[in-house]
Write a structure and sequence with these properties.
The complex is a heterodimer of chains A (109) and B (112). Chain A is mainly beta. Chain A is built from no helices and eleven strands. In chain A, the strands form two sheets. In chain A, strands 2, 4, 5, 9, 10 and 11 form a six-stranded mixed β-sheet that branches. In chain A, strands 1-3-8-7-6 form a five-stranded antiparallel β-sheet, with no helix packed on it. In chain A, a hairpin with a 5-residue loop joins strand 9 and strand 10. Chain B is an all-beta fold and 112 residues long. In chain B, a hairpin with a 7-residue loop joins strand 9 and strand 10. Classes of the chains: A mainly beta (109), B mainly beta (112). At the A-B interface, strand 4, strand 5 and strand 9 of A face strand 5 and strand 10 of B.
Chain lengths: 109, 112
Amino acid sequence: KNEVEQSPQNLTAQEGEFITINCSYSVGISALHWLQQHPGGGIVSLFMLSSGKKKHGRLIATINIQEKHSSLHITASHPRDSAVYICAVRSNTGNQFYFGTGTSLTVIP
Amino acid sequence: DVKVTQSSRYLVKRTGEKVFLECVQDMDHENMFWYRQDPGLGLRLIYFSYDVKMKEKGDIPEGYSVSREKKERFSLILESASTNQTSMYLCASSLDHYNEQFFGPGTRLTVL
């Protein structure tokens, strides 16, 4: 049983499309993270949020605590957005982090 | 900028060898973590440390040990490497439990 589920697992989009990646979790959390991992590269933190919505450039992250769901949106997608996007949550009952298996995004020019 | 560095990007070892993976962070972070990442399984926590000489087991500690003698350095040790420990190993650090984690570039370990 995975505490964090992401969908879709793989996503291919045309450049310029609006993209949504979903994350659902089953534990109580104190924070949710969206991470980005480029092929062969390390992991970069995009957002950390515990409520509402955050925006950074073309990236928007939202969270609904009651529904235990978060979405990552990318507007006007670009080939350089091609990466694996990982959702992670920090449990509110200890120091545990739970990670989704990632969504592999490919943006075609 | 926070910098987390790992001793090697790629490593090839033989079954039974003792393997040391080192991680160093330069931002005086309290917490440090070791993960492994495998296709289809995502990131799994091996060990973490919230202070010097302190360590806690994660989800998959078997076959691994860790050492944190100094605040900035967290080492992962494979006492006797096995082929099922072939993986990408990622180190991370965070200021404390309430802040985001910063990741190193990863070490791709192959055990033959």
